[in-house]
Automatic annotation (TrEMBL):
Signal peptide: none annotated. InterPro entries: ABC_transp_permease. It is a multi-pass membrane protein. The lineage of its organism: Bacteria, Bacillati, Actinomycetota, Actinomycetes, Kitasatosporales. This is Xylose transport system permease protein XylH.
Length: 432
């Protein structure tokens, strides 16, 4: 534990990142709003000086990107474009959340793009060609992703085949199977008024919906932070000041209600964004607030140590790849929904190489470490906003795909380099 009981991003709850020094009776050594603001500022400064990539660094980068593109095209920050952006991030974001689960155990899944394309193709074939009801076709498509993840996990965890090799082979196998299912045309159009198409076209136009989600999210954060403070205080551990919790809650409320206001100026709250936020909440709770999540982080910290702690390493590994496959399939349905077709032949479609690259980039840019044990699903939200904002801005400017690919690759390289430097700094400070 570092000074003041701080905690690295992505570690299970057990220490309190940014907690202030306490007196012998467990009370904060300083009080008041000014002390809360000062503690928050010191935490940010300590993270930057210590070489850690906190969310504020990514937020600062995102703000710079938005300012640059707004200066180049005043339509970039328009309610229409931001609303479209909030929908466009969902498909890639869901795939990236699955990537986070695998990265946390120090592995990689290169098949997610192909799995997403396979799910979209399976849905289209069953619904359009075979006439199955949409909801059944959706369940089968998601189950296909889960089965593929179990297949990869079995070869990796029980047969000892490196995950890189297994998922690289899967990338080829499932992409080939997708092309086979789609047939000679390579594309199957789905019903534009159907269930899957509505995933990205449906909006809650009542302004109260967006504001209600903003209020619930803000209240949920405050209650979770206050509950954690109470637990730490009862245990005699360092804990955040109430003023600091209120400060963080106020900043979150400002962002949440500003986003709600912007969305309401166009078509209201998108259903796709609401589903994405729900997945983030559930995933983050499972990883950070449950015993199972602590096992995942422990496995990312070291395999042998996890075994000695009684963790079923093979089972957890298989389950992480199953989660990755399931979310890849789910994300593939959202990509198919936005295109109203199943086709891996376009650069932005499910099954394309760009979906894989963007998903990995979103996870790493957001702060999930390639070295395991650090990261959270919420990091994906910032990462995918960075990636998709760049794509959206260059699209408005008419930049060709070739240039977009190079820029995205450069951003990914920068994020990985920052992750490696962070790891090196932690090693020098004596962290595992």
């Amino acid at each position: 534990m570092s000074r003041g009981g701080s905690q690295r991003d992505g570690e299970p709850a057990g220490t309190d990142r940014g907690a202030v020094p306490v007196t012998a009776d467990g009370r904060p050594s300083t009080r008041g709003w000014s002390a809360g603001l000062r503690a928050y500022a010191l935490e940010v400064r300590g993270s930057v000086q210590g070489g850690e990539r906190g969310p504020l660094v990514v937020i600062a980068g995102l703000i710079v990107i938005w300012i640059v593109f707004q200066a180049l095209d005043d339509k970039f920050l328009s309610p229409r474009n931001l609303s479209n952006l909030s929908v466009e991030i969902v498909g890639t974001g869901l795939v990236a959340v699955g990537i986070v689960f695998v990265l946390l155990i120090r592995e990689i899944d290169l098949s997610v793009g192909s799995v997403s394309g396979l799910a979209g193709a399976a849905f289209a074939v069953l619904n359009v060609n075979q006439g199955w009801p949409e909801w059944i076709a959706v369940l089968v498509a998601v189950a296909v992703g889960t089965a593929v993840g179990a297949f990869h996990g079995f070869f990796f965890a029980w047969l000892g085949v490196p995950a890189f090799v297994v998922t690289l082979a899967g990338l080829l196998i499932w992409n080939g199977l997708t092309l086979y299912l789609l047939g000679a045309s390579g594309t199957i159009n789905i019903d534009e008024e159907g269930l899957v198409a509505s995933l990205t076209s449906r909006h809650f136009e009542d302004a109260a919906a967006a504001y209600a989600v903003a209020a619930l999210g803000t209240a949920g954060y405050f209650l979770a932070a206050h509950r954690k403070r109470s637990r730490h205080r009862a245990a005699g551990m360092p804990y955040r000041q109430t003023a600091e919790i209120w400060t963080r809650t106020g900043l979150l409320a400002l962002v949440a209600f500003a986003a709600a206001y912007t969305l309401n100026r166009f078509q209201g709250l998108p259903l796709a964004l609401l589903i994405f936020l729900a997945v983030l909440v559930v995933s983050d709770y499972a990883l950070r607030r449950t015993r199972y999540g602590r096992r995942v982080y422990a496995l990312g910290g070291g395999v042998e140590a996890a075994r000695r702690a009684g963790i079923g390493v093979e089972r957890v590994r298989v389950e992480m790849f199953m989660v990755s496959g399931t979310l890849a399939a789910f994300g593939g349905l959202f990509v198919a929904s936005s295109l109203t077709s199943a086709s891996p032949t376009t650069a932005r479609a499910a099954g394309s190489g760009m979906l894989l690259i963007n998903a990995i980039a979103a996870a790493v840019i957001g702060g999930t470490s390639l070295f395991g044990g650090r990261g959270s699903p919420w990091s994906v939200l910032l990462g995918v906003l960075v990636i998709q904002s760049i794509a959206s801005g260059m699209g408005l400017l008419g930049v060709e795909d070739a240039v977009q690919f190079m820029i995205t690759g450069g951003v990914l390289l920068a994020a990985v380099a920052a992750d490696a430097l962070t790891r090196r700094a932690e090693t020098r400070r004596g962290r595992p």
